[in-house]
Amino acid sequence: MEYDEARITQLLPLVQTAADDLARHLGATNVYPELLRDVREYRRAISYEPKEIRWGVIFGLGIRLENTAATAGRIAEERLLPPLEDTAQAALESLLMLHGPLILSTSDGRELQDQADRFRLTREQQVALKADAQAVAIALKQAPDVIEPSAAELVAGAADSVGVGPHPERGAAFGTATIKNAMTVIIAAASLGALLPVGVAAAGGNGAAVGGLAAAVAYESLKKSKWFSAASTALGDDVDRLKEMTQAEINERLRMLAPFRRFVIANEEPLRRIAENLGQLRWMLPYIDFIVRTKADTK
Fold first, then answer.
1. Number of separate domains in the chain
2. Which of 84, 116, 148 is at the close of a domain?
3. pTM reported for the whole predicted model
4. Averaged over 127-149, what is the pLDDT?
5. Do 106 and 144 share a domain, yes or no?
6. Could you tell me which residues come within 8 angstroms of residue 161 by beta carbon, excluding any fewer than 6 positions away?
7. Do 267 and 185 share a domain, yes or no?
8. Which end of the chain offers a freer environment for a tag, N or C, measured as fewer CB atoms within 10 Å?
9. 219 and 248 together in one domain
10. List of residues 6+ apart from 119 with CB closer than 8 A
């Protein structure tokens, strides 16, 4: 990822100071706990060196912060809660104003912003996308063997951001990008896990049950295939070692991916609708088909 080091070096301390000031003022009154929560999460995320910061996450957290701030403003206007004190309001405005230039100093931030500017779903499409994304996010929270709790929370926050706030297209872009990142790993892992019956068959198991499918992805051919290489590499160096393992070792590793396969099968419908409705994620459809088909093949 590319980023403007000089600009970030200038802006990052200012953003950190604004976030610290705002968190301190909000913590003193605790009138807007949701806003305080989002400020603290944003501050933690920008506490690293520029090259270690996950700038795509910062983009999304900025959207959440903006949406929460807008909600707090509406609540204050309706006199349901007291407005922010002047010092807190000044810190909030500074933080929101500095966030934009900061995020646009990175290639990831500019790409996400460009996507947001082009992302124009109808209201009905946003509602449908949000419902399916939230369904997947809820399922992920209940699947600790598939995703870490902190990552599941990030997906949930991204799903909740779709179609919300003064710039709903930005939340939609963040939600799509976050779900895409999560699904790249989950779908790849599930697809590899779905190969287990084939691997066993190729080793001399119930070959008749899978017939031509086993022959098509026989062990040696499977290791040399571009699809297998791409899917295993997507899961990191440890799983990429599948290409160097024996057939028995691969079968054992694929058994460890069974939770991913079960997750995709259990959540086939919302995952399929997300893929069908978003051009960026339509690549998922043939993989979902393959995962579901191998389930039928092994009944």
1. 2
2. 116
3. 0.55
4. 92
5. no
6. 60, 63, 64, 67, 171, 172, 174, 175
7. yes
8. C
9. yes
10. 169, 170, 172, 173, 176
Single residue among 96, 116, 136 that ends a domain in this structure = 116
Are 269 and 180 part of one and the same domain? Answer: yes
Cα 153 from Cα 47, distance rounded (Å): 19
Verify that 185 and 206 share a domain, yes or no: yes
Contacts 24+ apart (CB under 8 A), 159-162: 159/130, 159/133, 159/134, 160/130, 160/134, 161/60, 161/63, 161/64, 161/67, 162/126, 162/129, 162/130, 162/133
Phi-psi region of 291 (alpha: psi -120 to 50; beta: other; left: phi over 0): alpha
Enclosing domain of residue 293: 122-299
Contacts of 256 (CB under 8 A, 6+ apart): none
Same domain as 28, residue 130: no
pLDDT tens-digit series, residues 168-202:
777 777 777 788 788 878 887 887 777 664 444 34
Q: For residue 224, which of 210, 201, 242 has the smallest C-alpha distance?
A: 242
Structure-model confidence comparison of residues 205 and 29, the more confident one: 29
